[in-house]
Structure formats: structure tokens, C-alpha cells
Amino acid sequence: MAACDGHAYKVAGDNAKEISQYQAQRGDAIAFLLKTTGYVGEIKSLKSLPVGSGLVAQFKKMSELRAEGDVFGSVVSPLSHCRNVGYSAGQYWSVVAGNIRTQKPEEAFNAYLADAQKCQEQIDNAPAPVTYLETPKDKEPPFSGCLEVISLGEERNVRSWSCPSELLSKQ
After folding, report:
1. With a cut of 50, which residues of the chain have pLDDT below it?
2. Quick one: which of 91, 94, 143, 137 has its CA closest to 115?
């Protein structure tokens, strides 16, 4: 354990994996956001629903967006909102097509826009480097600006902290 101003702590890890994932997927996220925006624009401009094979093709295209968005990971991934864009685009199509009647098309469209904006924000803002620290259970964080990581489940004899890496580099 290291010490800083009388606070004992141990470095338990960092978010380098998330930063690497962001860097690897950023270009794909941009392309995916453009693609979903184009598809949603097509639906918005429809004067009437396609019929027959056109309806099936549109349904298939929108369903594929959901699966395509899954590559961006779970809700804790650095581009998680981009994953949601595929789902909200598919939801918008389902509302317009009449498969979902509990939501108005404008509401579904606005939900898509909100997810698209959050995706764009994630694309524009890479995750900041974070270092995870552990301290004895009775100790406070070693640096101002650290946030406690709450873990559910087993009782631990340490407290975990998420700290901006720049704080540690200044020490």
C-alpha cells in the first residue's frame, strides 16, 4: 500500500480497457449514428407505410439496426448510448408501423433524437483516464475528487474509489 497525506491506498486498476474500446469503436459509432439517422429520416418522410415485400424489407432493416448496435456493449460501455440508438430507431419504426400502440410517433421520434444526441456526446467526449484505488474500510479517499465505488454483495474489508488519473500523476 502506498500513502499520501497519511492515507494508505492500493492501486487496484484503471479504465484503460474502456478507453481502448472507445478508440477502437469511435469510427464505427459515427457510421452507425449516420446510418440510423438516415433510416429514421426515411421513415419520417413516408407518406404511407410500404406494403408487401416493402414492408417486410423495412421491418428487417430496422431490426438489423438493433443487432448492429449491440457491438457497442452494455450500459457501462463507453459508447453505450450509441447502442441505444439502434433500439430507439427500431422502436420508432414499430410505432409508425402500428406494432406498438402505447406510444405516439412523435414521442418515439423524440426518444430517438434524445438517444442520438447522447450518442453524439459520447462520440465527442472520450472517457477520461480513471484509476481505481482501495483503502482500508475506515479510511477516506486519498485525494479530493475521488468517488466511492459501491459494490453489492459480499462484505469487504476495503473501500474502493474511482479517481481521475490526473490527480495521481500530480502527487
Report:
1. 1-6
2. 91
48 burial type by CB count under 10 A (0-12 exposed, 13-18 middle, 19+ buried): exposed
- 163 in Cβ contact with 129 (< 8 Å): no
Q: For residue 78, give Cα distances in angstroms to 20, 24, 64, 167.
A: 10, 11, 22, 21
Q: What is the pLDDT of residue 1?
A: 43
27 to 16, 110, 122, 124: CA distances (angstroms): 18, 25, 12, 11
Q: What is the pLDDT of residue 32?
A: 98
C-alpha cell recorded at residue 2? 502506498
End-to-end Cα separation, the chain, in angstroms? 15
Q: In what order do the strands lie in the sheet with 147-149?
A: 2-4, 7-14, 130-136, 158-164, 147-149
Dist. CA 48–CA 96, nearest whole Å: 10
Residue ranges per structural domain of the chain: 2-15+127-169, 18-124
Burial class for 63, CB neighbours closer than 10 Å (0-12, 13-18, 19+): middle
* Angle at CA of residue 160, ends 155 and 166, nearest 5°: 175
